[in-house]
Design a protein that fits this description.
Blueprint lengths: L18 H11 L8 H6 L3 E10 L4 E13 L3 E3 L10 H24 L5 E5 L2 H6 L2 H8 L9 E6 H6 L1 H13 L2 E8 L6 H4 L6 E4 L1 H4 L6 H16 L3 E4 L5 H9 L4 E2 L8 E2 H11 L22
Parallel strand pairs: 2-4, 4-5, 5-6, 6-7, 7-8, 8-9
Antiparallel strand pairs: 1-2, 1-9, 1-10, 2-3
């Protein structure tokens, strides 16, 4: 989960904090923003998994979604990852990842029932992949539908670059359980193109700093085009994240980028709102309460 996404309009709800928790929260707010621990969010059931749609830029349709963590605080509404991911330790990161992973696997079935077989993605740090038995968790909790497309695990380029051999071994283990690897934030790390040949990745996600203004800034546009061509040469998909304006969207389509994410296309949203969006795309009417049976009138015919 990344701290860069723009959240949807926060919704607030009531709740009570203990005196210690209220004092701790008040202390944290004396800086800039409230800081909530993952342990507290899980204990109080404040942690939510939101979804940002991933759009097929060629077919102009919904192709998948990325799972993103949000804390729905009783007093401060929806908090973005910057308030709880900064400085997170490996143990808390593993707990957050396990919660998000299991929720994402469960939620796929709800999206499938709405008529969409979506490829869902979740961001997982390499340190958590070494700590958490992701292949076993997926194998034990994956949807049993034969048409389940698998799960995408996003790992940032800089983390992969630290140990390509280790990343390759992790990718092979994940593949057995139906999990493919996406290289996130590509262009912002230090990996060489040659080293990527050793890693079986399904997607290459263009770093948002290069996607922004790629239509007008020559360097950004060149980096995006190179990354897209590289992904295609390796038989993988190219995904542009952080699309914020129409000009950049059109430029990426000309570059033959496969998928796109960003607030221009769709913001992150709670699962319920995402399902409502899916239903609206299919023009499905909302369920109506059953009308009470009316006894037939005298002389009327009953089919």
């Amino acid at each position: 989960m990344t701290a860069r996404e723009a959240g949807d309009d926060p919704r607030r709800w009531s709740g009570e904090l203990s005196d210690n928790e209220r004092n701790s929260l008040a202390d944290s707010m004396r800086g800039t923003r409230p800081r909530i621990s993952i342990e507290q969010a899980l204990r109080e059931h404040w942690l939510e998994i939101w979804y940002q749609p991933k759009i097929d830029l060629r077919r102009k349709c919904l192709a998948g979604a990325e799972a993103l963590a949000r804390i729905h605080h009783p007093n401060f509404g929806v908090l973005l990852p910057g308030t709880f991911l900064a400085g997170i330790d490996d143990e808390s990161s593993a707990r957050l990842t396990e919660h998000a992973l299991l929720a994402t696997l469960r939620d796929w079935s709800a999206f499938d029932e709405a008529g969409f077989n979506l490829h869902l993605a979740i961001n997982v740090p390499v340190a958590v992949l070494l700590r958490l038995p992701v292949p076993r968790l997926v194998k034990e909790n994956r949807p049993r539908a034969e048409h389940w497309p698998g799960l995408i695990v996003e790992v940032t380029e800089d983390q992969i670059a630290r140990d390509i051999t280790l990343a390759n071994e992790i990718a092979k283990q994940l593949k057995i359980s139906g999990v493919s690897v996406s290289i996130d934030d590509f262009g912002g790390g230090y990996s060489s193109f040659a080293s990527l040949r050793e890693l079986p990745f399904a997607e290459l996600k263009l770093d948002h700093t290069f996607v922004r203004n790629c239509a007008v800034e020559g360097t950004n546009g060149a980096i995006c085009q190179t990354a897209i061509d590289l992904a295609h040469r390796f038989g993988s998909m190219a995904v542009a994240e952080g699309i914020e304006n129409v000009a950049d969207l059109q430029a990426l389509q000309v570059m033959r980028c496969d998928f796109g994410q960003g607030v221009l296309l769709a913001p992150p949203m709670p699962k319920e709102r995402f399902i409502a969006l899916l239903n609206s795309r299919l023009n499905r009417p909302k369920p109506q309460p059953e009308a009470a049976a009316t006894p037939p009138q005298s002389g009327s015919q009953v089919a």
